[in-house]
Fold this sequence. Notes:
Oligomer: single chain
Number of helices: 0
Shape: globular
Order of helices and strands: EEEEEEE
Helix content: under 10%
Structural class: mainly beta
Amino acid sequence: MPACPQTFVPNWTLKFPAASPSAREQFAMAYDAMHGRVVLFGGFNGSSYLGDTWVWNGTTWALQSPAASPTARYGASMAYDAAHGKVVLFGGDGFREITWCALL
């Protein structure tokens, strides 16, 4: 009989960053393996679509101001494209374009 894989036990730590994204739902988020960070985009805050981009480096959130950015939306999907080293965003409601490549 083959050996069982090692069991993963998460180790959660409560953080209190100085800045963080506002409360929202249906945002898109993906891990950017090339840069070792999590990217968050958009969502819905109960009254409007959001179009902001935030990155989490494991310690703090930082609001980004890219030169080009997708339109505000919620319910989109985001993934890391390892072949190109880019985070990509697809779809969502409240948008005009279909796919947005290379968020950061």
